[in-house]
Write a structure and sequence with these properties.
The chain is α/β, with parallel strands linked by helices. It has a nine-stranded mixed sheet, with helices on both faces. A hairpin with a 2-residue loop joins β5 and β6. The protein starts with 7 loop residues before the first strand and ends with a strand.
Length: about 400
């Protein structure tokens, strides 16, 4: 693997404060985020020669030509484009590929952008749904009528059966991230909750209650990447990409490994090896949390705790501000925002933490951050390690 450590840096970030954007086209929201991230970096659209976007479904108002349409919309003609879409972690994967493009001279300033408006975008629009598509391996699971939430419920139930994980431990994930969201003025949900509140909320897909599930919001974000040398002369202190890894596995539930290993078990070690770091050296983490079980599996696969011990790891307070691994300091997808694909926000909050600009909870003197995302039902994963 090409060593990308320190070859590129994130120079600007921006997260839209909107959680409801009625009648706003996702492209308009992306424009807002791109301009905001460029301003944060002290750059303009004229400086951009690389564009990454992956928004090809109904909630994002896009298509398979989304990156082309977006370039036209914002008025640039980039020399490097990337529309790789592997689900929610696409933007972390794109950050690694953008670093490679910068290191090899394919581009100098790359913008990674995402926005979606699922709260209002016409729900009747045609979309590709891998859970009901009547072809390929999926045809063998259609009779069981899987849905996205029920599939995550299966993961949670399997973890309980294998390792003794409890509903209370799952609920603690939501409680911890809500504590962080309470101090984030832009978070969708800020009212503190208890474990009992989570368990008393309606059951959605056993064992997942409503408060075990992410919020549904509009929103968007953007990240500006450039070379290490150019980043030194820009408006904000650079945050360097020092480690990166990505992996894909399976799409069908029937192919899930017995011990619930996810592609993070591959993407994480690759990122740590490139960075020359270990999990114990991470100061703050932003881990995709579509459901409470999501970050728990990632904690195990990334090496922060042993297989089956994430429940106890969370219950012991390790994800809180005073814990060994403060995680999802903006409130995450469970409380802050989740427009559909949340990987880009893990990058944004990682940068804010390393700059000391956390919108709410701030980890003191954080120097190394981990951003991790997944795609589909643990079908893909991407991990980035950032350092100031």
């Amino acid at each position: 693997m090409i060593d990308l450590s320190g070859k590129a840096a994130i120079a600007g970030v921006f997260e839209s404060p909107r959680r409801d954007a009625p009648r706003v086209h996702p492209f308009a929201l992306q424009m807002e985020c791109i301009l905001g991230a460029l301003d944060d970096a002290g750059l303009t659209l004229k400086d951009v020669d690389g564009l990454c976007a992956a928004s090809g479904d109904w909630a994002e108002g896009g298509s398979t030509m989304d990156v082309v349409e977006l370039a036209e919309y914002i008025g640039i003609a980039p020399t490097y484009v990337n529309s790789t879409d592997v689900g929610g972690c696409s933007y972390i994967l794109q950050a690694g590929q953008a670093a490679a493009a910068i290191a090899t001279g394919l581009a100098e300033v790359v913008v990674i952008s995402y926005a979606a408006c699922p709260r209002w975008w016409p729900l009747s629009s045609p979309s590709f749904d891998p859970f009901v598509f009547p072809a390929g391996p999926g045809q063998y699971e259609i009779p069981y009528a899987p849905t996205l939430i029920s599939t995550y419920g299966l993961f949670a139930r399997r973890h309980m059966d294998l390792y003794g994980t409890t509903p209370e431990q799952l609920a603690q994930v939501a409680v911890t991230f809500r504590e962080h969201a309470a101090k984030n003025p832009d978070a969708r949900l800020r009212k503190p909750i208890t474990v009992d509140d989570v368990l008393a909320s309606p059951m959605i897909a056993s064992p997942l209650h409503r408060l075990d599930c992410c919020v549904v919001t509009d929103g968007g974000g953007a990240v500006v990447m450039t070379s290490r040398e150019r980043a030194r002369d820009l408006k904000k202190p650079p945050v360097h990409l020092v480690g990166y890894g990505a992996a894909v596995a399976r799409t069908q539930n029937s192919q899930i490994p017995d011990d619930l290993t996810t592609p993070a078990a591959l993407s994480g070690p690759r990122a740590f090896a490139m960075a020359g770091l270990t999990p114990g050296e991470i100061d703050v983490a932003q881990i995709y949390d579509a459901f409470t079980i999501t970050p728990m599996l990632a904690l195990e696969d990334l090496g922060f705790c042993a297989r089956g011990e994430s429940g106890a790891f969370v219950a012991d307070g390790n994800l809180t501000l005073g814990g060994s691994l403060p995680t999802n300091t903006d409130g995450g997808g469970l409380s802050s925002n989740h427009p559909g694909k949340r990987g880009i926000f893990t990058l944004i909050e990682s940068v804010r933490q390393l700059r000391g600009e956390g919108p709410g909870v701030q980890v003191p003197d954080a120097r190394i951050a981990l951003a991790h995302g997944l795609g589909g039902t643990f079908c893909s994963a991407a991990t980035a390690i950032l350092a100031r």
